[in-house]
Amino acid sequence: MSETHPLRLYRNIGIIAHIDAGKTTTTERILYYTGRSHKIGEVHEGLATMDWMAQEQERGITITSAATTCFWQGYRINLIDTPGHVDFTIEVERSLRVLDGAVAVFDSVAGIEPQSETVWRQANKYTVPRICFVNKMDRLGADFFRCVHMIEDRLGSKPVVIQLPIGREGAFIGIVDLVALKAIYWHVESLGATFTICDISHWLFDDAQKHIEQFVQEVKAQVSAEGGASDTLNLHIKNTLTPELVEAVHKYRAALLETIAEQDDEVLEKFLEGKSLTEKDIKTCLRRGTLAFSFVPVLCGSAFKNKGVQTLLDAIIDYLPSPLDVPDVEGIIPETETIVHRKADPSAAVSGLAFKIATDPFVGSLTYFRIYSGRLETGMTLLNTIKDKKERIGRMLLMHANTREDVKEATAGDIVALAGLRETTTGDTLCSIHHPIILERMEFPDPVISVAVEPKTKSDQEKMGLALAKLASEDPSLRFSSDQETGQTLIAGMGELHLEIIIDRMRREFKVEATVGAPQVAYRETISRTYEIDYTHKKQTGGAGQFARVKIIFSPLEPGSGFVFENKIVGGAVPKEYIPAVEKGINNARQTGVSFGFPTVDFQATLIDGAYHDVDSNTLTFEIAGRAAFREAAAKAGPKVLEPVMKVDVVTPELYMGDVMGDLNSRRGQLQGMEDQGNAKMINAQVPLSELFGYVNTLRSMSQGRATYSMEFSHYALVPEAMCTKIQKKEWRGG
C-alpha cells in the first residue's frame, strides 16, 4: 500500500488515557472529520464505532483495543483506540509495542489520573513519542494550566504549550494557536466541521490590549460572515478576549520559542539575535524535540463539543513520527543469536510482529500484525520463528473496528489482520523463510485474582474448554486451569471487571452457562531464611536403580525477584546435562508451594555439589532429587505467605472523606497521601486485594454514589500470621 502513500506519509498512533478522559469520544470525532464515518457515534448512547462489543456499548467503556485507518491532509493514519480501565492494561501494552506515536488524552477537570500515569510509563517503556490533548475544556472545573503543571510533576516530562484555551467551562469557544498565532473559533451549527480563523500576530505588540474591543468586533464580523454567528457565541467572544488571555499568549509564546530554539543551531542563532522565527522553523523544531523526547507538545479542546479535533489531527501529522522516523526494529537471528536491525523498507525481507489475536464471528481467528519491513502478499508462506512453524497467508484484511476490507498486499508500516493462522499467538514473529529473525517479545503481567467456575451441564463443560482456550488465545493476561481436587476450573485475570467480562463473553459468544464462585486472591509463598540441604535420591527395586545426590542452598531474595537458579558445580560432581533437570524439578515443585499450596517466589536455589552414578543416574533422577530437595528445604526455611497489595486512589467529596478513610483503615489499608482534585479530594492508599472485593458497592453506599475509585497492582507483601490461619481454612489452591 506504500505506492499510494509513501512511508513518510504514514502515522501509526494510539489514543491512550485514564478511563473516562474521552479517548473514544476523541477517536469518534477523528473518524467523523476525516470522513471515515458520516455520523458521530456517541459513547453515552452506546453508538461509538470503535466500541463495537456488546459489553463496551452497555458499559460505555473500551475493553479491547480497536484499530482503524483514516486519512487527513493526504496522510494515512492507522489509529488504535485503547482501554483506560486498569483491568485491560494488557491491551494498551501490546498496542504501544507496535505503534510509532501516541496521543495522551487528559481530563481537564480531573487532571493526571492514576491510569494516565500507568499508560505513560508503558509508553516510556516502548519509547513512544507522544503529544498531549487536554480534553473536556467545556466542563465545570476545567483547568488547563493545572493539567500542564501535572504533566511535569506527575509524569516527569517537559510540557510545551502550543495552544491556549479561549474561555473555559461553558464559555469555552476555541483555542489560540501559539505556533501560527491564530485564534480559532468553532461553529456549533456545523458540529464543529466549520470554524473561523483570525490572525492575532498583533497581540505580541505592547499596545495590543488597547485594541481588544476593536478586535472583538472584527472577530464577531468574521464569524458572522462565515456562518457561525449566534448570540451566545458573540457574548462569549466578548467575555473571553481579555487582557489576561493576551498576557498568557505573550508568556507561553515566549516559553515556546525559548524551548524549541534549543533543537536547531540556526534557529537558536536567529532567536538569540532577536530575529523572528517562521512557522516552519517552529514546527520543524517542535517535531525534532518531540521525536527526541525533549518535551511533549500540549494542545487543548473539547471532543464532545466538537472543538479542537482538527487541530489535533494537524498536530498528529506535524509532530508524531512516521515509520521512517523511529529506530530500525531490532531482533536476533535464531541460529546465531546475532543482533540485527531491519529498516522500514518495502524492498527488504519481510518481518513483523503478531500483537493481538481476536475472534471474528464471520472470519474466524484474526491475527493483528504490524509489518516492520518488506512486502506481504496473500499466498505467501512465512516462518514463525518462535514456534519454528510455517504459516500461509490466505486472507489479509484492513480493519475498521469490527468491519473489514480485503487487501492483496501490504508493506512496511502497515497494520493488517491475517485470517486463519494456526500456530501464531500474541508476541510471535512472522518473517521471510530465507531471512529469519526473532523480534523482541512482549511481556505480560501475572494475574492477581481468580474465580472458580462450574459448568451447569455436561454440554456446557465441553463448550467451556473450547471457549476458554479461544479467549486465552486472545488475551494473554487470562489464565485458566483445572483443580484436580475439586474438579473446578479456575479462571485468573487482572481484576474483578476483567473476570466479569470473560464470564459474560463465555455466556454470550459461546453459549456457556456456568456457576461462578466468589473471587479468590492469587496468594504466593516465600522463604524467610537461608537453608542448605544435602539430599540423595536412591531407589533399588531390582534391575536398573535410581540415584542422584544434590547439595543446594535455598536463600530468600528481594520482593519481585521471582525464582532464580544458579549452578556453582565445579569439577563435574554433577554432569552438565543433568543440571537443567535439577532446575526443572525445583521449578515444578515450587508451583504448589509447601505450607499452603501457593506458588513459591522470591528465592534463589544455588546448586553447589552433588554426585551421580554411571548407570543409575539420568535426567529423571536428578529432577526427582531437585523436587524433593525443594520440598524438604522450603519447609525448614521459614515459609511465609504473600498477598497482592493494590494501589488504590479514591476521589470523594470532602463531606465523605472521614468515612472513606476509616473504611480503608478497616480493610488493613495504609494511607499514602491526599491531594485536591477539583472540588473533591483524592485519597491514596495501599490495600490488600483480599479486602477489596465488593468495595465499589460499599463506596457508593457510603458516598451516595458520588465517590469513585481506581486500583492497580502494587506489590506482594507478607500476610499477618493471624490471616494465615483464615487462608488455610479456605483450602483454596490458587495461582
Automatic annotation (TrEMBL):
<dbReference type="Pfam" id="PF14492">
    <property type="entry name" value="EFG_III"/>
</dbReference>
<feature type="binding site">
    <location>
        <begin position="135"/>
        <end position="138"/>
    </location>
    <ligand>
        <name>GTP</name>
    </ligand>
</feature>
<dbReference type="GO" id="GO:0003746">
    <property type="term" value="F:translation elongation factor activity"/>
</dbReference>
<dbReference type="InterPro" id="IPR009022">
    <property type="entry name" value="EFG_III"/>
</dbReference>
<keyword id="KW-0648">Protein biosynthesis</keyword>
<dbReference type="InterPro" id="IPR005225">
    <property type="entry name" value="Small_GTP-bd"/>
</dbReference>
<dbReference type="Pfam" id="PF00679">
    <property type="entry name" value="EFG_C"/>
</dbReference>
<dbReference type="Pfam" id="PF03764">
    <property type="entry name" value="EFG_IV"/>
</dbReference>
<dbReference type="InterPro" id="IPR000640">
    <property type="entry name" value="EFG_V-like"/>
</dbReference>
<feature type="binding site">
    <location>
        <begin position="81"/>
        <end position="85"/>
    </location>
    <ligand>
        <name>GTP</name>
    </ligand>
</feature>
<dbReference type="InterPro" id="IPR009000">
    <property type="entry name" value="Transl_B-barrel_sf"/>
</dbReference>
<dbReference type="InterPro" id="IPR020568">
    <property type="entry name" value="Ribosomal_Su5_D2-typ_SF"/>
</dbReference>
<dbReference type="GO" id="GO:0005737">
    <property type="term" value="C:cytoplasm"/>
</dbReference>
<dbReference type="InterPro" id="IPR004540">
    <property type="entry name" value="Transl_elong_EFG/EF2"/>
</dbReference>
<dbReference type="InterPro" id="IPR000795">
    <property type="entry name" value="T_Tr_GTP-bd_dom"/>
</dbReference>
<dbReference type="InterPro" id="IPR047872">
    <property type="entry name" value="EFG_IV"/>
</dbReference>
<dbReference type="GO" id="GO:0032790">
    <property type="term" value="P:ribosome disassembly"/>
</dbReference>
<comment type="similarity">
    <text>Belongs to the TRAFAC class translation factor GTPase superfamily. Classic translation factor GTPase family. EF-G/EF-2 subfamily.</text>
</comment>
<keyword id="KW-0251">Elongation factor</keyword>
<dbReference type="InterPro" id="IPR005517">
    <property type="entry name" value="Transl_elong_EFG/EF2_IV"/>
</dbReference>
<dbReference type="GO" id="GO:0003924">
    <property type="term" value="F:GTPase activity"/>
</dbReference>
<keyword id="KW-0547">Nucleotide-binding</keyword>
<dbReference type="InterPro" id="IPR031157">
    <property type="entry name" value="G_TR_CS"/>
</dbReference>
<dbReference type="GO" id="GO:0005525">
    <property type="term" value="F:GTP binding"/>
</dbReference>
<dbReference type="InterPro" id="IPR014721">
    <property type="entry name" value="Ribsml_uS5_D2-typ_fold_subgr"/>
</dbReference>
<keyword id="KW-0963">Cytoplasm</keyword>
<dbReference type="Pfam" id="PF22042">
    <property type="entry name" value="EF-G_D2"/>
</dbReference>
<dbReference type="InterPro" id="IPR035647">
    <property type="entry name" value="EFG_III/V"/>
</dbReference>
<comment type="function">
    <text>Catalyzes the GTP-dependent ribosomal translocation step during translation elongation. During this step, the ribosome changes from the pre-translocational (PRE) to the post-translocational (POST) state as the newly formed A-site-bound peptidyl-tRNA and P-site-bound deacylated tRNA move to the P and E sites, respectively. Catalyzes the coordinated movement of the two tRNA molecules, the mRNA and conformational changes in the ribosome.</text>
</comment>
<feature type="domain" description="Tr-type G">
    <location>
        <begin position="8"/>
        <end position="324"/>
    </location>
</feature>
<keyword id="KW-0342">GTP-binding</keyword>
<dbReference type="InterPro" id="IPR035649">
    <property type="entry name" value="EFG_V"/>
</dbReference>
<dbReference type="InterPro" id="IPR053905">
    <property type="entry name" value="EF-G-like_DII"/>
</dbReference>
<dbReference type="GO" id="GO:0097216">
    <property type="term" value="F:guanosine tetraphosphate binding"/>
</dbReference>
<protein>
    <recommendedName>
        <fullName>Elongation factor G</fullName>
    </recommendedName>
</protein>
<dbReference type="Pfam" id="PF00009">
    <property type="entry name" value="GTP_EFTU"/>
</dbReference>
<dbReference type="InterPro" id="IPR027417">
    <property type="entry name" value="P-loop_NTPase"/>
</dbReference>
<dbReference type="InterPro" id="IPR041095">
    <property type="entry name" value="EFG_II"/>
</dbReference>
<feature type="binding site">
    <location>
        <begin position="17"/>
        <end position="24"/>
    </location>
    <ligand>
        <name>GTP</name>
    </ligand>
</feature>
